Amino acid sequence: MTTKLSDLVERSADILPEVIKWRRHFHQFPELSFQEKATSETIAQILGSFEAYTIEKNVGGYGVVATLTTGEGPVIALRADMDALPIYEQTGLSYSSKHPGVMHACGHDAHISILLGTAKLLAEDANTELFKGTVKLIFQPAEEDCDVLGETGALKMLQCGVLDDVEAVLALHMCPWRKKGEIQIHDGPSMANNDDFYLIVKGNGGHGGYPHHTKDPVWMSTYLLQALYSINGRKVNPLEVGTISVGQIHAGEANNVIPGLVEIQGTIRSYKKEVRELLIKEIEGAARVVTALGGDFDLTIHRGEPALVNDPAINKVICDAAAGMKIVNEPFGMGSEDFSHMTARKPGAMFFLGCGIEVERGLHHPGFDINEEALSDGIGVFLKCVYQLLHQREGE
C-alpha cells in the first residue's frame, strides 16, 4: 500500500505516544558532550528494531548514522543533536533527570525522538515507492561544547565524511517562545558567528597603600572596558548585527594588594563575515589603550561556530511541508549552533519548531520544558521535506 502525503500528519500523530516515551527516557538519562555513550546505544537499538537501516556507530565520537536507500535518486540528510547541558534540573517532572547536574535543557531529547519517529515512518514507507533515493539520519554528539582542539560534534562527523555524498541537509530546533503549530524560519544568516576573546592586562603590582609605585592593571582595565563597550555602539553599522559582551573579569587575591594581571574574557557575536572581522580588529585596537597607560596585554581570539546560513531553496521546501502551520519569518537570534558547519558544506536549513508551554522557560533554563504534542509536528514536517526532496511520484 502506498502512503499519501495527506496521511503523514495522521500517521505522525498516531506514533506520538511512542515518541513521547522515547523523549522521556532520554530526558531522564542525559549525557554531556562527548559522553553520550548510553544515548548512542539506545538510539542504535531503536533504529535496529525498524529493520530497514544500515547503521554506523561511533561516528565522530558517539555519533550514529542510519542510512535508508530505496533506489537511485538524491541523498538527503536529517540531523539531530543529542548531548545535554551541565544544569541542575528544576522542573519537578516525574521523568526529571536522574543524573544530578546534567539536564536536557535545550530540547535535544526532543530532537532525537523526532528523528527516531521520522525514521520509523520512513522505514514503513521504504517499500511503497513513495520516494526514490537515500535518506541519512545523523544523530550528532557534542553540539553544546568543543574538545581541546576547539572542535564540536558537527566538525567531528564532517571529518568522517557523513555529508560527502549528500545533496541537502536539514535540522530543527525546539522553540519555547513559539506555540505548537508554529515554526520560525529565515533565509540567510539566522544564528551568530560565535567567537571568544581572552585578554590579559599586564602591569606591575604592589602594595595597595602605595599605588604610585605600581602600574595598576585594574585601573588600566577600567579604560579598556569602556573602549570595548564603545565598539558595540560606535564602530558597528547600526544596520548590521554584531555585539561584544564581557562575561568574566578576574584579578587579585587580597584587598590590599594591587595585582600584576587582570584577565578579561568575553564573547563576540555577529552574522556577517565582514562584521566578524571588524569586531576582532576593534578589540585589538581597544586593547592598545593599555599600552598608552604604561601596561601591556596579550589577546587571544578563539574562533567558534560560523553563522548559521539557511539556504532559501531548502527553506521553501520546509515552508511547503509546514503548510497549514503558522510560519514566522525571523532570524533565530544571537545564539550559535554548530549545524552551521554542515550548512557551510552543503545546501541546508534549520527551522525552529514551536513547542511553548503556558509558563515559558527559555532554552538552557533549569525549568525548561516543552509541549510534547509538538513532537508530531516535527515528524510531519521532516517527512514531507524528505518526500519533496526525493521527488515523490505525481499525485502521491
From TrEMBL:
NCBIfam families: amidohydrolases. PANTHER family: METALLOPEPTIDASE, PUTATIVE (AFU_ORTHOLOGUE AFUA_6G09600)-RELATED (PTHR11014:SF63), PEPTIDASE M20 FAMILY MEMBER (PTHR11014). This is Amidohydrolase. It comes from Halobacillus naozhouensis. It holds the Pfam family Peptidase_M20. Residues 197-287 form the Peptidase M20 dimerisation domain.
